[in-house]
Design brief:
Length: about 400
């Protein structure tokens, strides 16, 4: 008996009721990217019930996903989840999926002169390198802007965003990747008193005018204050297999085995491999390309194509599931590629729950991503977690 939990990174499905508080009123990742791309061709997810979800949303216009009509008889149960934690970032979304609630939210930084002077001074003293940047910026844009200075001086490019992040970019030929990770560990320790969600290593290569970020990105997350569903499962002898950046998000806790894949194709291949090989347990994966490659870079057509490739993979993957298995597809936040700026967007996220041979039904609007964790607890017959309602 296996549960496979796949987080489609940033695939939101409509503005949350409190989106205006985050400057995101009107954001709707799926419907907007589908319209911009001239329609979204995802027949597998359409049959599962993806197109049935928008009509459930009470606080947003009932926007259809162009090319994805409602299924008369969905093959999966379908719904939408509203985030209860304060935030719209990766760690907040994933932690809530795993049963936690982040309240108050993680510490954010202002868009200019972002990091406190004492934090900068301590960081520069411990690393022996100067810091340049110190502002909110697009990762690709700030590398283009400050990459030449970084190469010439060895100073580290540090920047933030609307999320609670301290990001450090460095050319792999100037700062070897292991050394960059060490700097991030220093930043992690220095930022802990501020409750910063993530320190992110952003290595890149290339020459001025043609810089390119590599897949050696690594996240250093704030340590959770209570056990996640991963830890609860592992404590009961149920194995947990992590794919992609899952290990970093959960600080390498509650995991039996992990492989840090850097793109959707590799993550999908590993999920498929482990589904064939593992007889029981939780397989949890993050498919990162939608957010990292297309959402932040505001590329709706690329985003749509990436989803279509995943849908093609799903068509071949679903037949691998046994009668006792359960597949959950969801997301951690939105990232509307047609919206202003380059940041995440506060949205509902889709929920598709597929069990071979079972007819789908409406799961409605779930108040809290942690309904997933509660459902996993019931699925694996372990004690209930402190919050959430099971849909199993």
């Amino acid at each position: 008996m296996k549960a496979i939990l796949i987080v489609l990174d940033s695939v939101g499905i409509g503005s949350a009721p409190d989106a205006a508080e985050y400057g995101d009123a009107g954001a709707s990742t799926l419907s907007h990217l589908a319209a911009a791309a001239g329609g979204l061709q995802v027949p597998t997810m359409q049959k599962m019930g993806l197109g049935n979800i928008p009509a459930l949303l009470p606080h947003t216009p009932k926007e259809k996903i162009e090319g994805v009509p409602p299924a008369p008889k969905p093959s999966a149960s379908y719904g939408a989840m509203r985030e209860m934690s304060d935030g719209k970032d990766t760690v907040t979304g994933h932690w809530e999926i795993a049963g936690l609630e982040v309240d108050p939210g993680f510490h954010g930084f202002p868009p200019v002169h972002s990091f406190p002077k004492d934090l900068i001074a301590d960081f520069e003293k411990e690393t022996g390198r100067k810091l340049i940047g110190n502002k909110a910026a697009s990762g690709t844009a700030i590398i283009d802007e400050l990459g030449p200075e970084h190469i010439q001086t060895g100073a580290l490019i540090c920047y933030t965003s609307a999320d609670s992040v301290f990001q450090i970019a460095a050319h792999e030929e100037v700062v070897p990747v292991p050394e960059l990770y060490r700097y991030c560990q220093i930043a992690r320790r220095l930022c802990d008193p501020l409750r910063v969600g993530r320190i992110i290593a952003r290595p890149f290569v290339g020459k001025p005018g043609a810089f390119k970020r590599t897949e050696n990105r690594k996240d250093f997350a704030y340590l959770p204050g209570e056990p996640t569903i991963l830890e609860r499962l592992l404590a009961k002898g149920i194995p947990v297999y992590a794919v992609g950046k899952i290990e970093d998000i959960y600080c390498h806790r509650g995991i039996t085995e992990s492989i840090h894949t850097g793109n959707n194709a590799d993550s999908q291949a590993l999920v498929e491999k482990w589904t064939r090989e593992k007889t029981s347990g939780l397989i949890m994966a993050n498919f990162i390309d939608y957010d990292m490659v297309y959402g932040h870079r505001r590329d709706p057509k690329g985003y749509a194509r990436s989803l279509e490739l995943t849908d093609q993979w799903l068509a071949t993957y679903l037949p691998l599931l046994g009668p006792d298995d359960m597949l959950i597809l969801t997301a951690d936040h939105g990232n509307d590629p047609t919206f202003k700026g380059t940041d995440h967007t506060r949205e509902y996220v889709p929920l598709l729950v597929y069990r071979p041979g079972e007819a789908g039904e409406s799961l409605g609007i779930r108040r809290g991503f942690y309904d997933i964790a509660q459902s996993l607890a019931q699925f694996f017959s372990i004690p209930a977690i402190p919050r959430g309602a099971s849909f199993v």
